């Protein structure tokens, strides 16, 4: 089998003396959606940081399109086509929506207006509010700003840590629809979600992470159908 488009393989590491990740593996194929679920404190965000280069790994490696990028800084990974929306502090609240999008494109030297128009097409409300401070927006709109900012780098892989945190079920459904749209353009999505059922429903691949290790890995629908996964992680 060919190598996945992006893979964090057998990742072991943490923030200090104790490891948080224990041989954790996450991967996503081109244009597909991979979803990571698991209890609070399982290490989901830590695993995302590791894939993006914000955590020094003691063992394991990260590969993008077959190239070992384990030693690269997050900035260098952005240049390679990776974008990451962290779980918290993912927008500049005092800047306008448009300034946030411009910040997303800071590495680009070409004309960014076409990409900005694409972001506004994906999230029309952001165009209406483009001169407003991002901090004045609703939770769902802020998440759109964060995703839009990440898309401004024209990434090959979009990594999202709980993009629907704190939004209503309707807004969550809309965000998931937009994420599916993004994946259909060929961008790979690697995302952590606490709305496990809904997220697994749209997942080509699902990962259940527990205590920094892979507990279950399968297609989204297969995980949803697994009685043990349902009982332990999806509330029955
Ligand atoms: N910056 C940090 N420094 C030290 N320890 C940390 C840091 N961030 C997280 N941890 C610890 O690492 C473990 C995993 O945390 P992590 O945030 O990765 O979990 P998570 O699965 O994303 O949880 P949640 O569902 O609450 O977002 C926890 O024990 C946490 O206390
Ligand atoms: Mg987290």
UniProtKB/TrEMBL annotation:
Keywords: Amino-acid transport, ATP-binding, Nucleotide-binding, Transport. Belongs to the ABC transporter superfamily. GO terms for biological process: L-amino acid transport. Coiled coil: none annotated. SUPFAM superfamilies: P-loop containing nucleoside triphosphate hydrolases. Residues 6-236 form the ABC transporter domain. It comes from the Bacteria. It comes from Cereibacter sphaeroides (Rhodobacter sphaeroides). This is ABC transporter ATP-binding protein. One of its GO terms (molecular function) is ATP hydrolysis activity. InterPro entries: AAA+_ATPase, ABC_transporter-like_ATP-bd, BCAA_Transport_ATP-bd_LivF, P-loop_NTPase. It holds the Pfam family ABC_tran.
